[in-house]
Amino acid sequence: MTSLSRYTLNRIAGAIPTLFVVIAAAFFIVHAAPGGPFDEERRLPPDIERNIERAYHLDETTAEQFWHYLRGLASGDLGPSYRYRDYTVGELIAGALPLSLWLGAMAMLLALIVGVGAGTLAALRHNTFIDRAVSAVAMVGISVPIFVLAPLMVLIFAVFLNWLPASWTGTAGPLRLVMPVIALALPQIAYIARLTRASMIQVLGSDFVRTARAQGLSTVTIVRVHALKPAMLPLLSYMGPAIASVLTGSVVVESVFGIPGIGQFFVRGALNRDYTLVLGITILVAVLVITLNLLVDLLYGFLDPRIRRR
Amino acid sequence: MSQIPSPASFLRGRLLSLCLLWLIALLGCSEGPTSDSSYTMLQRGNGDEPESLDMHKTRSTEAGDVQRDLGEGLIGYTPAGELVPAAAESWQLSADGLQYDFSLREDARWSNGEPVTAHDFVYSFRRLVDPDTAAVYVQSVEQIVNAADIVAGNLPIDALGVEAMDAHTLRIRLQQAVPYFLDLLTHPSMFPLHRASVQVHGAAHARPGNLVSNGAYRLTAWEVGSYIELERNEFFHDAANVAIDQVRHHVTSEPMAELNRFRAGELHTTRTIPPAAFQQMRQDRPHEVRVSPALGVYFFGFNMTKSPFANAPTLRRALSMALDRETIVEKIIGRGEAPAYGWVPYGTPNYEPRRYDWAEWESEARYQRARELYREAGYGPDNPLQAELRYNTSDTHQKVALAAQSMWREVLGADITLINEEFQVLLANVMQKEVTQIVRLNWNGDYNDAQTFLGTLESTNPSNFTGYNSDEFDTLMQKAATRNDPDVRKVFLEEAERVMLEDYPLIPIYFFVNKSMVSEQVRGWGDNILNYHYSQHLSLDGKQGVSDL
Predict the structure, then answer these.
(1) What is the mean pLDDT of chain A?
(2) How do residues B166-197 score in pLDDT, each as one tens digit?
(3) A44 to chain B: which residues are within 8 Å by CB?
(4) Which three-class secondary structure string do you get for B102-158?
(5) In angstroms, rounded to a whole number, what is the distance separating the alpha carbons of residues B66 and B428?
């Protein structure tokens, strides 16, 4: 067994207790929250409440419910959803995940292209107008929340200019992807641009770049061949969690554009005390974060030969 | 390991090709139904995602609106909100008010062409009360003979007082006269179910491809989080008068986003109109703003079981009189809501709502009296009332709470602290009656009768938020419940409301309105207090729907 595959296997084995802790914490936290999935202003008479609690195992103690849940989980069953009563959590996730993954991947790709491009440009034109403009726009991108930006985009591009559909179902064509993808990508573009700029400035000031310059290499060659690789390192550690969060969608983007994605399930599930749905999404996100972090660590080796040698 | 390109080399000099790839991918994923121009398609904003389409597992208005398109009960409503025969052609009520005999239409069909029979109704009613179904809306049929005992698990489901006399005659026996029973029958819980498909598909029977329905439409697609799509049921007995071929009920949980979709021409109707945009819409698109009285009231409830509000009617009254409801509805909400000086909304049939005698007073006179009462209750500048008002997270609730806080401070000098809680927390606290002192809530009627409002204040009602417990009120409600004569019943109910208002267990603030954007293209939209708008009554542009005839 190579050291790399042993390392990978160790990491995967180490992830299992982490995952268990995440599941247990999430389970007891959502169950500790006051109120239940069937509470409304209109209270149910005791007989009816009892029937519902029995049907959904809510009459058991929290520990019994946890055991019940774990047993289901072991056989791959995430349980029924309390809020979306015609579906199981597995079905809801399976139905919404492909679209969320697709949109998230597009958004992340866009964010990388624009963010790294803008960040590099700003670093090369350090302390000029371009640099300040990029930093300012990135600052705005980070601080203006998407629940302000997304409706504003709709108002401008769909209601006033009528260039793009206001929602996912407004057209069947690819135009319906444009605003959701941009809305998902914007905060990431801002972060990535800032990270790239900062680390690129550092790399460009380092000795090996100065040596390269002294040898008469052009700026483009220096950036492409020598600077970009090390400058990507800080970005890479940010990418693991960032990709996980973008891939699992955003409740704001989804509810503004009417997209049938994963993001809405998390927030609405929590608000509605849809215990199983919240847990299902938590597990999904945890698995994604763990996997992506592992992937990122493996990628470090490719980017930085010093890490590979160790 | 070496086959995998490193990200850096991947990025290197390939930005352009990446951009291109991204665009191609973007353009490449066009999908969705192709539209046919001869088809009429209605796009409705439906608010939150319905919790289910199983007739027995829902009680939200969002689910009900889709279910009323899919199914048909014994009785339905006209666009104006009047009862009309639906799956039943006619009915007879026995002299004692305890037995209904319904004659069903012989031409009623399921969406698979099979006839709808009395047995389908019997099956559905039995499933509704079956403890294993765990239905959420059973309390409204508890007056059917043996229903409560079956729900409690004491009797088998076939003991229910609902029988098929023959294929087209359904008998329902009640243990007590229920004057609003026909209204109850319009609820989706009382729709028939197609037994064979429920038995085959079980919990998944209400999904596209599985659901067999008997209404004007059948279910063709359900994108959770996006829309529910229905197509006209060609077997529906009145299919000739159904103008719209296809209906999409869109999930629109954000009112502002819903309005933008409407303004972009993607929706024909909306669930609501956000307060922030209401005045502008009224100016820009006056013909598309539809507002009508609703069956709901916004109120503050007192915790009647704990200090400082237990046994303090004078104090409660002072707080109620000190609130300027006109300012709240005009300046804060501003969508045509009516200030509430009573509990039962205007427009409930066979009922004359009671109102506080001081409702007509000048505001200064009201405040003067409020201050006197406040002093009588033992409070004053040196000893101000200190209490907490809880509300759940929402812009509107926060504004109303802030207004109330400042009105109480200005008029009485009371020191009220505002506490914001998540809705499930708020409800849990209300029911525990420990920490809650004053709480913001609203109550919406399920059926158009004063009972649905007054009943919540009976001491035994599970939805009694305030802990109000009055023998006089309970006795009047009991008397009303046992009277079959609507005129006698009305007297008891009205007296009950008067008694309750005098006790001040709550502060009614305003009566809700139904508010929707309805495109000028849509015909047949009738305003009604229940806010029911069956798609089968609507048509687009010149195409006539039944309701226009």
Answers:
(1) 86
(2) 999 999 999 988 888 999 999 999 999 999 99
(3) 136, 139, 462
(4) EEECCCCECCCCCECCHHHHHHHHHHHHCCCCCCCCHHHHCCECCHHHHHCCCCCHH
(5) 29
Q: Is A85 helix (H, G, I), strand (E, B) or coil?
A: coil
Q: Cis link prior to B308 (omega < 30° from 0)?
A: yes
Task: For residues B221 and B203, give the distance between their C-alpha atoms in angstroms, rounded to a whole number.
Answer: 17
| SS3 state of residue B278 | helix
> Coil, helix or strand for B535?
helix
Q: How far is the alpha carbon of A303 from chain B, nearest alpha carbon, in Å?
A: 7
Of B59, B266, B422, which is closest to A167 when you measure between CB atoms? B266
pLDDT in tens, A248-265: 778 888 888 888 888 888
Residues 6+ apart with CB under 8 A from A214: none
Residue B231: count other Cβ atoms within 10 Å of its Cβ. 17
Question: Which residues in chain A have their CB less than 8 angstroms from residue B8's CB?
Answer: 228-229, 232, 302-303
Q: B263-315 pLDDT, tens per residue?
A: 999 999 999 999 889 999 999 999 999 999 999 999 999 999 999 999 999 99
B149 pLDDT exceeds 70?
yes
For testing contact with chain B, the best of A100, A169, A175, A304 (most B CBs within 10 A): A169
Alpha carbon of A136: minimum distance to chain B alpha carbons (Å)? 23
Residues 402-441 of B with CB under 8 A from A: 422-425, 427-429, 431, 441
The answer to whether B331 and B269 are in contact (CB under 8 A) is: no
| Bridge partners, B506 (sequence order) | B301
Q: Of A29, A46, A49, A26, whose CA–CA distance to A38 is shortest? A: A49
- Buried/exposed code over B160-198 (b: 16+ C-beta within 10 A; e: otherwise): bbbbbeeebbbbbbbeebbbbbbbbbbbbbbbbbbbebb
Q: Report the pLDDT value the prediction gives residue B344, as an integer from 0 to 100.
A: 95
- pLDDT, tens only, B89-123: 999 999 888 999 999 999 999 999 999 999 999 99
Taking the model in full, what pTM does it have? Answer: 0.87
- Which residue carries 């090390």 as its tokens? A230
Q: Which of B188, B212, B193 is nearest to B119 (CA)?
A: B193
How high is the pLDDT of residue B535?
A: 96
Mean pLDDT of B57-61: 90
How far apart CA B500 and CA B495 sit, in angstroms, is 9
The answer to whether B273 and B281 have CB atoms below 8 angstroms apart is yes
Average pLDDT, stretch B119-130? 96
Q: Do B25 and A106 touch (CB under 8 A)?
A: yes
Q: Which residue of B has its CA nearest to A181?
A: B26
Which of B290, B294, B292 lies closest to B345, judged by CA? B294
How does pLDDT run across B225-248, given as a tens digit for each residue?
899 999 999 999 999 999 999 999
d(C-alpha B241, C-alpha A171), whole Å: 29
C-beta atoms of A264 and B266 within 8 A: no
Q: Is B199 on the interface with A (CB under 8 A)?
A: no
